[in-house]
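User: Earlier you gave me the apo prediction for this protein. Now I'd like the version with zinc ion bound, so I can compare the two side by side. Same sequence as before, with the ligand SMILES added.
Assistant: Got it. Here's the input I'm using:
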Amino acid sequence: MILFLYVKIMYIYKLVFLSLVLFSQLANANDIPKITKNVVGIFNVDTNKAVNTRDVYGDVINYYIPPEINTITIHSPNDGDVSIDLQSEIEFVISEWREAGLRFKRLSSIQGTTRYIGYRLGNDASAYGYTNFNEPREGDAITRLSLEPSGFTRFIPDYYRRLMRAGMISSNMTMHEFIRMMVRVTLLHETGHALGLAHHDENGHEFIGGMRVGREIVRCGINISRPSIMQGGSSGSYLSLVSQFLSRPVNINDVVLSRNDLEGADRMFNSHNSRGVVSLFCMAVFMSMKGSEL
Ligand SMILES: [Zn+2]
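And here is the structure of the complex with zinc ion:
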């Protein structure tokens, strides 16, 4: 009986030690800031409740791609014109966000409707893309999401060279491939805004007019979770973080949403029944670790 108890205690100590080893190994695997994995949602200042995207769009999130932007051209100063199948890129981005459990529908006509995400091209050279939330008004999208080809032309060549010098993209990645990858990063990111997400570092940040505020809705510090697509500042830092996360140069297939991004979009859509801040994905990983130890 005593012997049995002794063995049992030893067993427990051993388990604790093993779990510590496991965590410290993960901690050494990469050291990118944990905050870059958290997800921040847009809240109403008056009510302190999340801006519910089901209220904004309805049960099905409609989106519209004007036929004239199905294929676009982005000019690159040293490499000439690059043609992008924008329609396919947007469809890819929608299919990614669909993984949050959201339902989307592409509109073929916007006659008589305003509650949709309207994709468009802008002419602002100071960013890669924008998302604007409008008051519902006749003949326009409640959320306008623009890609800015002139911003790409201005920023892309330098950014391409910097990432290549740092070994964060492969030395044989062409400018065409790089532009396509940046279009995808931008569309995933801007669509995240359209789904109610703010930048990862905007917890407590007040937005235009002081009516909206950022609140952390998914927190997940574990190392195996990817950086959020909603990186603040220039979209630039996202690719660097993914490269650090993977410990190798990135390619377009590495540009995917994190589980936390998906959970964030789900929470913004179902925010009337809030489920707290700790990531379910984190919790699931913790539980499975615990399960394997026991
Ligand atoms: Zn943004």
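For your comparison, keep in mind: The helical segments are 2-29, 53-57, 86-98, 149-165, 175-194, 236-246, 259-269, 280-293.
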